Amino acid sequence: xxxxxxLEAKGHEVTTLGPxxxxxxxxxxxxxxxxxxxxxxxxxxxIVGIISxxxxxxxxxxxxxxxxxxxxxxxxxxxxxICNEHHTVNEVMEIMTRGRFRHLxxxxxxxxxxxxxxxxxxxxxxxxVEREAESIRSYxxxx
Length: 143
What we know:
Elements: H1 3-10, E1 16-17, H2 23-33, E2 37-41, E3 47-52, H3 53-63, H4 89-99, E4 103-108, E5 111-117, H5 118-142
Parallel strand pairs: 1-2
Antiparallel strand pairs: 2-3, 4-5
Helix pairs in contact: 4-5
């Protein structure tokens, strides 16, 4: 199973914001959309960073409430791990586990094409395991 299959099922929509937006806008979007991360772009769908709930909490811990007036670029992770539609579910799980993060932007031709979360990956992996188990049960029943 590949990232392409996940995106075909969930869609390519990604909530983004610019690096000069205030951190308070990132908080608002995360709460409104009920998501855990935002991809930071310059408006051209070129990925320049990612900001997660963890990044915001760290900044609040360091700067206090004044952090909400700082630009997103001050709290975002600028070196973003990405994947493409050809990555397998197992490869993506390895990337996320190694990097200890839960969201992975998908890039196509150098531009943002989607985002997958650990929830998307786990859901797909469970579906694969259930399908494999059913195939084995069918094989045994007909043998």
